[in-house]
Amino acid sequence: MPAKVKPKFLLALTTTHKAYWQDKVKEIDLLGLKEISIFPTCLELEKRKELYGLLEKTGLKKIPFTHLRTDCEQWEIEYLMKRFDCQIFNIHADNLAQSFLDRCQKYRHLVYIENGEHYQINPLFKKILDQAAGLCLDFSHWEDYEVRQDNKNYRNFKKYIAKYKVGCAHISVIKDEIFTSSDVFGNQSQFFASHFMKNLSEFNYMKDYLKYLPEYSAIEIENSLAEQLKAKQYLEQMIKESYENIDNRR
Predict the structure, then answer these.
(1) For residue 87, with 0-12 CB atoms within 10 Å meaning exposed, 13-18 middle and 19 or more buried, which class applies?
(2) In a domain, 1, yes or no
(3) In 3-state terms, what secondary structure has residue 118?
(4) What is the pLDDT of residue 108?
(5) What does the pLDDT read at residue 4?
């Protein structure tokens, strides 16, 4: 069954070193975009301020969903809520997550915790998750570690989905073959999940997860916003076909 709420896929302004985030800012007006999600997760404070200032100069009206760093300050939450009507946020359950939740306690009900790399599904993850609004479901991590690699930390991951509210999600691509790369912390590891799309078919794994889609899902890839628009249309068509298949079986 597809999701009960009508899912919305948001283009994502990601900030990894391959994402060329300044170019993505320029694309906002070139493509006439009025809403996107943002991932300022690789930017230190001064660069985040630069990003916010550049976004203010575009025609962007809304950022419904932001992936925050755990060293972000409360003023950043309040700024994004007031200036861009941001409604939900997510963070990683890293070693700064507790101090972030303590510092931004009045907004805990808007903050969701992402299921990260396999080694991050640990007692700290559950501790932080218990204090937040719920789960930010990263579908590619789930598919990669539970289904493709059968990682012990991800076995029975559905128990988290059953217990906690899924308030938002990330969607990256899944490659056909495993590859070795560095994660965001510089650790060498093996992955099927990737933040760079070569073919739209790399989203096909999502056909098995449509029923878990929350209202907002960010397309977390480093590709240009123009390429992300094609991914958005592909995912929307996937949902449309899932509804049509259900109607045909009735």
Answers:
(1) middle
(2) no
(3) helix
(4) 97
(5) 63
